[in-house]
Design a protein that fits this description.
By secondary structure, this protein is mainly beta. It has a domain of 39 residues. 8% of the residues lie in helices and 38% in strands. It has three helices and 33 strands. The protein has a 20-stranded parallel β-sheet that branches. Strands 21-23-25-27-29-31 form a six-stranded parallel β-sheet, with no helix packed on it. A five-stranded parallel β-sheet has the order 4-8-12-15-18. The radius of gyration is 22 Å and the shape is globular.
Length: 446
């Protein structure tokens, strides 16, 4: 059974009660770690149909006008077909409902996202573009529905001979930063709901949350090619009370990355019953300077991610990462199924030393690969509990500056320096947990 610390459970349960109260959902008992699925909105402020011909016009103005004029607590519904838009700004309490068969496609013209004349170019900062959809200082609302938001990251930028993704790859080879839009950015928001929506082909990160107090991602699908650089799935940054549940994520970078920068700590994040495919794994970091704590990950599959369970930081951006619990996790096809490293960038310099403490792994099963537990030094060592952790005999440990405690479920293979086990470690039955990625149908062009 997955055990939530009382503080985490009460806070997230309270957050959920507030968040879904407008969606006619009721909470389960306070001692249950499960949550009810949010219901669809009952009040629709407007229903929009697409242009009869996809190429006939840009929908930005009418979409933004409809959002601005939608009353708080109601939803703007996009009906089946294709909508084409530049950047949109959401309003407090307004939900964007993208129906089954509807697609909202992002304009690939860098000029419509431009902040400082740099969008669609390379420089050494990479912050020259507005996001496609922005929530700023909003309370309530979100994005729901069985439709698609497509960032068109693989399409040629208007007026250029390369796509957003090709620009990002060129930035890597030239040692510079790409100026590309994120798909969704939530800044200083609260009580945000994403439900059922497919987010795909973002030019950059798919969803970032910065200084957010309360958000739910339920049944979300994030789908981007493995070679699309810097296309993280969901990144909570300096945020609190976040639930990610029953979602499917494959990306060209971190599937989920929990971060904490100078803006403050990230705390009380719960991931339940999620499936990750290609990508860089279930990550914490690399920015941890603000402190990260009270993270719970349970019932997760990592099917082909390069890293599996991962905490990454270094002395240029380190901080305290503590009270992290992983339980009931199945891994296969990973190069580093466990990747807990305080020297993420070996060339980094600074005095912000990463410290990972009070971290437990329970009922974890995988195949082969490198199992990395690397603390910074003897003074700043890792503190881990391993209980029922099973990998094949071909897996290899890389352990430096780490203090381990082995639980009654044992560990296999036995880490170097640990006493041989007196009992066999039982691998989890992961066969029943693997699930193919549920691809969302693309609406036809009229």
């Amino acid at each position: 059974m997955f055990i939530l610390h009382c503080n985490l459970k009460v806070i997230i349960s309270g957050m959920l009660a507030v968040l879904v109260s407008g969606f006619s959902a009721t909470l389960l008992a306070q001692d249950s770690p499960d949550f009810p699925e949010p219901a669809l909105p009952t009040h629709i402020c407007a229903r929009l149909v697409p242009h009869q011909v996809y190429s006939s016009g840009d929908d930005t103005q009418r979409l933004q006008s409809a959002i601005d004029n939608c009353p708080r607590g109601e939803a703007l519904q996009l009906l089946a077909g294709r909508f084409f838009s530049g950047p949109l700004t959401m309003k407090s309490g307004v939900t964007l409902w993208i129906s089954h068969g509807a697609m909202l496609a992002a304009n690939p013209d860098p000029r419509v996202y431009d902040k400082n004349g740099r969008c669609g170019t390379l420089d050494h900062k990479g912050n020259g573009c507005r996001p496609f959809i922005l929530f700023r200082n909003t309370d309530g609302g979100g994005i729901i529905g069985e439709g698609i938001i497509d960032g068109q990251g693989g399409e040629l930028m208007k007026g250029e001979n390369e796509s957003w993704w090709q620009l990002a790859r060129r930035a890597q080879t030239e040692g510079r930063a790409q100026n590309v839009p994120r798909l969704v950015e939530i800044d200083d928001g609260s009580h945000i709901l994403f439900h059922g929506i497919t987010l795909r082909n973002s030019p950059g990160f798919h969803v970032t949350l910065k200084n957010v107090q309360g958000a739910i991602f339920w049944g979300v699908r994030i789908d981007t090619p493995a070679n699309a650089r810097n296309t993280d799935g969901i990144d909570p940054i300096s945020s609190q009370n976040i639930l990610i549940a029953h979602s499917f994520i494959r990306t060209g970078d971190d599937n989920v990355a929990i971060k904490a920068g100078a803006g403050g700590p990230t705390r009380h994040v719960l991931l339940v019953d999620n499936h990750f495919y290609w990508g860089h794994g279930m990550s914490i970091g690399s920015e941890t300077v603000g402190g990260i704590s009270d993270i719970r990950v349970r019932d997760l599959t990592l099917d082909g991610t390069t890293s599996g369970l991962r905490i990454k930081s270094d002395n240029s951006r380190g901080g305290l990462v503590s009270d992290i619990r992983y339980e009931n996790v199945c891994l296969r096809g990973n190069r580093r199924p466990l990747d807990f490293d305080t020297r993420y960038d070996v060339h980094a310099s600074g005095s912000n030393i990463p410290v990972y403490r009070d971290i437990s792994l329970s009922h974890i099963s995988g195949e082969t690969g490198q199992l990395v537990l690397r603390g910074y030094d003897a003074v700043h060592s890792l503190h881990f509990v391993l209980d029922g952790v099973y990998f094949s005999n071909a897996a290899r440990w890389l352990i430096e500056s780490a203090q381990l405690r082995i639980g009654p479920g044992g560990v296999s293979p036995v880490p170097p320096g640990e006493a041989p086990l007196q009992q066999s470690v039982v691998a989890a039955d992961c066969a029943k947990n693997w699930s193919p990625f549920p691809v969302t149908d693309m609406p036809s062009v009229k």
